[in-house]
Amino acid sequence: MEDQMQARMENVYRLAAGGYQALAAMEQFLRDSCVPQHILELVRLRAGQINGCATCVDLHAHRAQQAGENNERLWTVAAWREAPFFTDQERAALALTEAVTRIADNPDGVPDEIWDQAAEHFDEPSLAALVMAIASANAWNRINVTTRRIAGAHR
Prior knowledge:
The protein is mostly helical. The chain is 65% helix and 0% strand.
């Protein structure tokens, strides 16, 4: 287990600066989008949980807290279906996050029911940005997990 606490690369983002800059540009687009920032942080946190990305779970739990999220909601993101703390819009975003993140688990990709639920709560530009946010979170997760980036390294 101790080997897993050692990063495989000192700083993948410095070594692949062009790729990092592209991902950073996506993050700027998302900050400027119509999707509420707290929803973006919940989506990023949930994708990180599913993908086992300690770096992203740590980062986005902190960012969500800074954006005003309370501990009760943060502690229950992984069990959002059973927790009474989330709005219908947040639930739709979390369901879409799970479906996109686990896309290989469903032969039909993202089920229509989940897509339709998200479309009820987000207009098309916001829904498009939400899809980009989920894809971006998954990209960050995969880079960090693959290179064993250490949680808290961003601080």
